[in-house]
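Why does residue order matter? Because the sequence determines the fold. Keep that principle in mind as you read this record.
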Amino acid sequence: MGSNPWSATFVLLVSLGWWGVLHSPSASAANEPQTALPDAATLLREVEAHQKVLDKVRENYTFRAIQTTRQLDSGGNTKKIETEAHEVFFVNGQQVEKLVRKDGKDLTPDQARKEQDRVNKEVVKVSRPGYVNPDKDEITVARLLQIVTFSSTRLARLNGRDTVVFDFVGDAHAKTHGRDEEALKKVSGAIWIDQADHEVSRMSATLDDNYHVGFGLLASVAKGSNVVFDQALIRNEAWLPTGFALHLQARAFLVAGFRAEIDVRFDQYRKFQTDAVQQPGVTATPSSPR
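Structure:
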């Protein structure tokens, strides 16, 4: 996504992978004191240490992402709808997307060839030893805890599963470096962690103040823009995205404001039958979908 007010919130998403030390209270011990709820700082450090394990599991999977963008007028009415379908997979910890349909139509042979060429080049680039994504957030948990405050730890049910929920809010007075850290100061929301599998099952975040890029000359995102991200356990092995919803109010290069609702649904999860790394021009044969 690059550097924008939402990329900073994905630091929370990407880093919250393996919670390691969560414990659920016994349902049968109604008269016994409940197990102490986990400390966010300790758990975040555990998550950071296990992120590479989560990345390797995800590289065994491919799935489809269907994005629907509804552009809105000043009254909130839909004035244009665009759709895209992508095949998604991971290489060397990096997410790669291949466009396969646009506005309900398959790509033309020429468009498909150009898209495959683009994907091949992307795979080669991210497969290089030591590759670092220049757009990937590198905010460590130590820095995150200096910018964001976690509170109101509680238990809740989500999609039929027990979760631990943390609220979070950026510290407007925190000292920051770079656009991503600055954006994180302006965001608040909540994170749901699955108790059994110690994975993020949902994250919601809202922009609490207007966010400007280039003093507002390049872009500006309005207060109240919000995002919700959902994950689920796939094939009893990997936690993968199931939904993403973004309500956006923005302006770029001083032009008229842009308002949109962007909804992404994920499905057709497949596991590769081999352990082969994705190679340019070669598609590994997936097993049956979930």
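The two ends are 28 Å apart (CA to CA).
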